[in-house]
Design a protein that fits this description.
With about 200 residues, this protein is α+β, with helices and mostly antiparallel strands. The chain has three helices and eleven strands; from the N terminus they run ββββββαβββββαα.
Length: about 200
């Protein structure tokens, strides 16, 4: 089966808090999981990444990549000053001179705080950005419907149908001998399930 492609955009949102030393900012294929295609591998391009802050004491940030097994941190931008009067830092400009920064599926963008104990209770350090992702892989094949005695549908739906018939059978049988007894209906259900799960010759 040929491979397929899935493109999407995701927001990057993170916050440094008291006693936080290291923070994962972004790894392709991990954010907004409800919009992922199962089994696909995603690459990402960070197109926006800004840090806004309001702090009482100065600090220093390190921005880099984490990859490998065992994992190794590769610093890209070091000694980023976090001053008391700092309001905004363009982190993307510290990563690259281009308008986007590319990451593989197995690489994480991280930020480290040089002195985590210096983050006060009233300090606010927030990172926000955006990334464009492309996932590739082979889509899962659709469920193959099975047929029971002329009734076509998915197995759970058919089991539910026979469950409903089983619940109704005793009541109907009290009024009309044309309906199956409980034992007869159970035997029929077992037979139909066995037929549905048996592959064709």
């Amino acid at each position: 089966m040929p491979s397929d492609t899935h493109r999407r955009g995701v927001n990057i949102l993170a916050k440094l808090q008291t006693n936080t030393f290291k923070l994962d900012l972004y790894q392709p294929g991990t954010l907004e999981a409800s919009n992922l295609v199962a089994g696909f591998k995603y690459t990402g391009q960070v197109t926006e990444l800004r840090l806004t802050c309001k702090v009482e004491r100065t600090n220093t940030l390190i921005l880099g990549l984490a990859a490998g097994n065992p994992e190794v941190f590769y610093p890209i931008a070091t000694s980023i000053p976090l001053l008391a009067d700092t309001t905004e830092i363009d982190l993307l400009a510290l990563l690259t001179k281009n308008d986007r920064f590319r990451l593989s599926p197995y690489t994480r963008l991280q930020i480290l705080l040089d002195q985590p104990g210096f983050v006060g209770f009233n300090d606010r350090i927030t990172i926000a950005g955006f990334a464009e992702e492309e996932g590739t892989g082979t889509p899962a094949p659709p469920a193959t419907p099975s047929t029971w005695g002329g009734i076509t549908g998915n197995l759970p739906d058919q089991i539910d149908l026979f469950t409903q018939l089983e619940e109704r059978a005793p009541l109907l049988h009290d009024h009309d001998d044309r309906y199956l007894t409980d034992a007869e209906l159970n035997d029929l259900i077992d037979l139909k399930i066995a037929q549905a799960l048996t592959p064709p010759p």
